[in-house]
Amino acid sequence: MIADAAIDSAHVGFAPASGGRIPGNKGIWVGITCELVEFALMFIVYFIARAHYPDAFHEGADRLSRTAGTVITLLMVTSSYLIARAVVAMRDGRRTHSIRWLVAGLVVALGYPVAKAFEISWNLAHGIDGSAGVFVGAYYYLTLNHLVHASWGILGMLWVLGRHLAHGYSAEDHGGLEALASYWHATDIIWLSIFSLFYVLA
Q1: Concatenated DSSP letters for 51-73?
Q2: What's the rounded Cα separation, in Å, for the pair 56 and 138?
Q3: Is the pLDDT higher at 60 or at 80?
Q4: What global pTM score does this model have?
Q5: What is the pLDDT of residues 151-161, one digit of tens each?
């Protein structure tokens, strides 16, 4: 197991897909592009609002739970890492290890909606609701939209896991697993931007 982890560490995450091809499939990259464009437009609105209400955005971050934001960030980054491990293991033909990494990634990813539910409960208990100003409105709009996209990713993990357990992937053909990893990494990157803009830099 230690040797397998060492092998994974040498390849994990950023190794190119076999043959130099783009990982996943065209469909998932269309979806990722749409997701990135959607959030780019939301970020433009964020910066416009911030330019018009600098004080609200300057004070807003202090009202949010940085602990919740940090926990969600750790969950997203860790789950992305575990799913990348699953892809690398499958490329090496180690199906059982790939399934284990994928299950671990799914379990960690499920912590995100749980943490978000606790965060929203904490927010409401402290008067941070939709009527609390432009900063909070922008915060809810972007973070809840991200939660929707992350939920699609979690459903994708369940689908891919089902196919994986049914021997739907091999070392030569695992495009669905790569597509999932690509989508989840994109969703992870968007969250890191949200975390920076709302919990840290605001």
Answers
A1: HH-HHHHHHHGGGS-HHHHHHHH
A2: 11
A3: 80
A4: 0.84
A5: 999 999 999 99
Residue 144 has pLDDT above 50, yes or no: yes
**Count of CB atoms within 10 A of residue 2's CB?**
6
Q: Show the tokens assigned to 193.
A: 């931007």
Residues found in the chain: 202
Please say whether the dihedral angle defined by the alpha carbons of residues 194, 198, 200 and 202, taken in this order, is positive or negative: positive
Average pLDDT of the segment spanning 17-22:
59
The CB density around residue 42, as the number of other CB atoms within 10 Å, is 16
34/57 Cα distance (integer angstroms): 27
**Calculated CA dihedral for residues 99, 102, 37, 191, nearest 10 degrees:** -170
Which CATH superfamily, name and number, covers 35-200? Answer: Cytochrome c oxidase, subunit III, four-helix bundle (1.20.120.80)
Q: What is the pLDDT at residue 162?
A: 95
